[in-house]
Each structure stands twice: as C-alpha cells, then as structure tokens.
Amino acid sequence: MSYFDGITPVTFEGPDSNNPLAFRHYDPDEVVMGKRMEEHLRFAVCYWHNFAWEGGDPFGGRTFERPWFGDTMDHARAKADAAFDMFRILGVPYFCFHDADVRPEGADFAENTANLEAIVDLFEEKMKDGPKLLWGTANLFSHRRYMAGAATNPDPDVFAFAAATVKTCLDATHRLGGENYVLWGGREGYETLLNTDMGRELDHLAKFIEKVVDHKHRIGFEGTILIEPKPQEPTKHQYDYDVATCYGFLKRYGLENEVKLNIEQGHAILAGHSFEHEIALAQALGAFGSIDMNRNDYQSGWDTDQFPNNVPEVALAYYHILKGGGFGTGGTNFDAKLRRQSLDPEDLIAAHVGGMDVCARGLKAAAAMLEEGGLEAALTDRYAGWEGADAKHMLHEESLEDIAARVARDGVNPSPVSGRQERLENHVNRFV
C-alpha cells in the first residue's frame, strides 16, 4: 500500500479553485515568453527534507512517523517507492538527492558504495516513467567523521574518504543522466581560528574541487558542477560564504570557467543579502547555475527552510533569472521542509503545491515586467551618459591626469540626479 493512497495526481484548476491539492497558478503547459511554464521553472523535489528528515529541531527529536524510516536496504527501497509516488502525484520533471538520503550507512566505504549502486539500479527502473535527475550530491557533513570538515579536514584520511565518496556520487549522477552535480560544503569552514590554518584549508578545498572537475571530464559527464554558497550554520564561518566569496575563491584558483553556483534563498538571507542580489551578482559574473527555492523566518537567526510564500520576492528572483536568459542546466529545487507539526501525507503534497503556485505567480509577474520594459528603460536612461563617445574615451583611454585636466578645463560641476527608487518600487507593485 502506498503512503499516499487516496491522493490523486495534482492538476491545474485555476485561480478560483478551493481545492488545497490543486494548482491555481502553475499550469505546466501555459506559454510564458515563448516557452512552457514547466520548461522555465524546471521544478525539482528534494529527497532529504521530504523523505529523510524526521522532524527534529535543536530542542526536540523526531515528530514524523514514516514507514520507511530505518537503516536497512528494505527501508531504502520503501523510501524510494514513496518518493517516486510523490513525484508522480506532483508531476514534477526533476528530483535531487544526497547519497546518504537514499542508502543506509554501511560499515565502510565499500558497503556504502554497494548500497548506493543498488539504489541507483532501482532509480534507473523508476526513472523510465518518472522524473529526471536535476542534480546529485554527496553528504559530507552529517557523519561524525566530517565534524572538522571534509575537503578541509586536518586528517588526510578524511579528505580521502570524502574524495572517494564524491567519485561514487558523481558516477551515480552521470549514470542517471543528472544535469548537474552539487558540492555543498556543509562543514567546510571553522569554529575557531585557534585551531585553523585557513590558507592551508582553502588550498585543500581548491585541490578537492579540481579533482572533481578532472573526474567529470574523465567520465564524460556533461552536466554542470555547482557550489552552493552559505555563510555559517553549522560552522561559525564557512568558506563558501556568499556569491561574491565563492566567485573570488574560484577565480583565485582558476576554476571560474568550470564551476557555477547553486543559490539558495535562505542562505542569501543568512549572508545579509536578498535572493535577487545573489542571483543578479552571479549573472553579472557569469557564475549563475541553479537555485534552491525556500525562505527563512525573518524573526529567526537560522536556516528554517520553509516553502516560499512571498510572491514579490520570488518575482524579483525570476526577473533576474529571465533577464539573464533563464536556466541552462539548472532549475528550481525546493530545498524546503514541512514544519515539524505538519504530520500528514497530504501536508507534503500541499506544501509543494503552494510553493509551485507561488513560483508560477512570480514567474508570470517577472515575465510581464520584462515584456512591459519599464524597469529596463529606467536603467537605460540612468546610464545613458556612458553611451557617449567622450564618456567611453574617458573610461578606457584617459589617465587620472587626463581626466583632471579635462574637468578643470571644461568647468565640469555635475548636479545629482534622482534615482527614483520609490517610483520604481511602485512600478514593480503593479505586477505583483
């Protein structure tokens, strides 16, 4: 018997529907800017929060009771059955997983690998009629061996175990036709500088990523290698702090053409940024890859991973994604989890339905803003002075002495011009 018995596939019923398990705004076949909505959004359901997380928090343990909770291969197979049932009900085109989400922990690396390969065999069968893999990754943070990091661990044996694990996970992702592979450095950082050689750890992290990139090319994996920025939690300071920090790191070690970024809304907020800032910066740097769509509780100081419900925020995020040409190999992964009081199978479905509807509304608002052109016209007008021949000559040809002489000669004395922020904010509110 399926965990989701009695729940029928979710369909689009339109904005007037009162059905909590129906889409009001997400119609996968609706054409937006010349492309089907499903192809724009490229939704993925994550394996970890939905099927591996037990509902605990720092002050209390498990609240969820799922029939697949356990540490045997039979439990892993039951979990896969439930997962693919949910993917089918939601009609999502993709899913994502860590190795530790889908297979039990073995006694050693060999048993871990055998367990993962057995589940990959099962996934191959289930994926014939189901979703594709947006990305795979390795969990290099939960097991106690990684308490001081994986690639940045002071113990070379931990580095080796982590590297071997990533090889198996990248191989599995390649075998399943995954479109990306993510490196999330959950403990690649430090708790205190008293026992940390930061320069050495950064060098080791770069060498680790170089080896991943090399293996990608060796096996012919054509997907994108992604890093996911996050500033802290669980470590005090993580080396993949935000988009700017990640890009600086990649640039320093000559990896900027090999690795792009998977940007999460909740992590952006923890870093003191907005989601659209991180996306826009990644686009400007040529480093944008994919997104994890969730939100944080702004009254909490940690990563709460809630499903999105703020259409204006989501609209601005998709505005910058569409402006940059949309997703390539990336997509919209719901790295979001139920609240620990939401116990029922229907809650898992309803949470994703609501999140997908919010994204659909945001996407349509973003497309409408781009097609109307008001924001882009305002940008063009604001920077119009730089299109003149004199301005371009100054920027590219003149020295400080040349510029100073011209300012003195011509009596340049500029007056400030309004940025019109409030008017632009009002303009956005017309669409959301």
TrEMBL record:
Its cofactor is Mg(2+). SUPFAM superfamilies: Xylose isomerase-like. GO terms for biological process: D-xylose metabolic process. It is an enzyme of class 5 (isomerase). Binds 2 magnesium ions per subunit. Mg(2+) 2 binds at residues 264, 267, 303, 305. The active site is at 98, 101. It catalyses: alpha-D-xylose = alpha-D-xylulofuranose. GO terms for molecular function: magnesium ion binding; xylose isomerase activity. The keyword Metal-binding applies. Keywords: Carbohydrate metabolism, Cytoplasm, Isomerase, Magnesium, Metal-binding, Xylose metabolism. Belongs to the xylose isomerase family. This is Xylose isomerase. It comes from Pontivivens ytuae.
